[in-house]
Amino acid sequence: MTAEKMRDYLQGLPEQFNEMLQMKLNLPSRYKKEYQNILVSGLGGSAIGGDILRSYAFSQAAIPVIVNRDYDIPAFVGPQSLVLAVSYSGNTEETLSAYRQAERAGANIIVVSGGGKLSSLAREDGNMVVEIPAGLSPRAATGYLFCPLALILEELGLLSGVSKDLAETSRVLADLKEEINPAVDYDQNIARQLAGEMKGRIPVIWGSSAHSEVAAWRWKAQINENAKSPAYYNVFPELNHNELVGFEAPGDLISQILIVILRDPGDHERVKKRIDISRQVIESRVAKVMEVEARGNSFLARFYSLVYIGDYTSYYLALEYGINPTPVEVIDYLKAELNK
């Protein structure tokens, strides 16, 4: 696999939303019932859709949305739970284990997958399978992995305006792609500039808990997987109660840290003030502080605009280091060892 493969994946993200908007779910009537909770179970790139759903549902859903990244499921899962089991490959062992436990607990299960064992199991058990296009790296398929989850909750009446928000997200990403794709020179390309500043430094991404927390996590994970480099993240206001104090010693290490702050117009006014003050506190101690502003009207458009810039930044950082961003050989090795 070449670096161009990841470039092509990134270029195709806006179209994933359009493609999913054409999808007909046709949920069986047995799923249209009252639920007490929603559990999204997945790992890695397959779990990011659940994280986005949790954030998106925060201000709308009357019941909690919980993301599970484990072999086991919480004890509260039962007949009044909706479990969305997500695995792009369909062979993620933790998700398969969680699926089997949810089935034994009598939960209502819908599988979102590109195939594999998970889809086969679900069909054998009579559970609904939403099959999404396969062939990408899971981390490059966030449109495919998120959209069905949100559309399911819209059809169940737990979320509203999803289709409209997804359409706006696709438009915002298509416009943004024209500004940050590889054909755009460094001086005009914010993602290239961010990668250039990150090279040789330790990126720390700061978001806000209600809006850009998951985006900050995504930046960290994409830098790890694409650029094969360390990266860390935290969120306001929590980081003001601990992490902010950790910029005093050792000075030589702190001076190698690059802070990237993700800004969202919807951030709480007190959070906005916290960001400004925190920047004043650390700016002279770290290598640099950079900010990225979300775009769009809806939560989803703003969220994905931050994610898309981060995805491209991680791709350009890989190129800065002369690394192929597409393969994840360490993860492949780990899976092979576990399968022995």
UniProtKB/TrEMBL annotation:
Organism superkingdom: Bacteria
GO biological process, one term: carbohydrate derivative metabolic process
Pfam families: bact-PGI_C, SIS
All residue ranges annotated as the SIS domain in the record: 27-162
InterPro entries reported in the protein's UniProt record: Glu6P/Mann6P_isomerase_C, SIS_dom, SIS_dom_sf, SIS_PGI/PMI_1
Coiled coil: none
Keywords for the protein's UniProt record, in alphabetical order: Isomerase
Keyword Hydrolase (UniProt): no
GO molecular function (one): mannose-6-phosphate isomerase activity
Family, per entry: Belongs to the PGI/PMI family.
NCBIfam families named in the record: G6PI_arch, PRK08674.1-2, PRK08674.1-6
Listed name of the protein: Bifunctional glucose-6-phosphate/mannose-6-phosphate isomerase
Organism: Syntrophomonas zehnderi OL-4
